[in-house]
Specification:
With 147 residues, the protein is mostly beta strands. It has one helix at residues 73-79; strands spanning 4-5, 10-12, 19-26, 34-42, 48-56, 65-66, 87-88, 93-94, 103-110, 118-120, 122-129, 132-137, 141-144.
């Protein structure tokens, strides 16, 4: 299996690395501000979230997946983002953006044991808008390595 997305909707990385970057799009169609309350892995095995961040993407490209942390300068250049633009996700307030997925929730993932497969089925972002609680789960899965 090569690095990248496969026909099963998984992001795969055949190399064994301890630190990974993964990002999910999060739009806020409004009308009020969106406050992120938690970020977690659903069905996570062999992976842990070290930190989670939120950033406004200034181009049409999102962070996606990368087999390293911090994200390489090439990823930052394509997204129009600098590392100092990343803000902690928990407690972050996202202004409405007309329903366009321009916010990225960026995860710093750690794989403590490289001898065991690691995976998750989705990323869950819990948030509030005008006091009401919601959550979003991603459609993309991650498997390291893809089997």
């Amino acid at each position: 299996m090569k690095f990248g997305s496969d026909e099963k909707g998984r992001w795969c990385n055949p190399t064994a690395v301890h630190e990974n970057t993964m990002a999910e799009d999060l739009g806020n169609p409004g009308p009020g501000d969106l406050k992120i309350t938690a970020v977690s892995l659903v069905g996570g095995e062999g992976l842990e979230i070290v930190d989670s961040y939120v950033v406004l993407i200034k181009t049409q490209t999102s962070f996606g997946y990368g087999p390293e942390w911090p994200p390489p300068k090439s990823t930052l250049a394509v997204t129009g983002v600098a590392m100092e633009d990343l803000k902690p996700a928990a407690g972050a307030i996202l202004a409405p953006n007309a329903g366009v997925d321009t916010w990225n929730v960026v995860l710093h993932l750690r794989r403590p044991d490289l001898t065991k497969p690691a995976k998750y089925t989705s990323v869950r972002v819990d948030y509030q808008v005008k006091g009401r609680r919601y959550f979003k789960t991603s459609a993309m899965r991650l498997e390291l390595p893809c089997l």
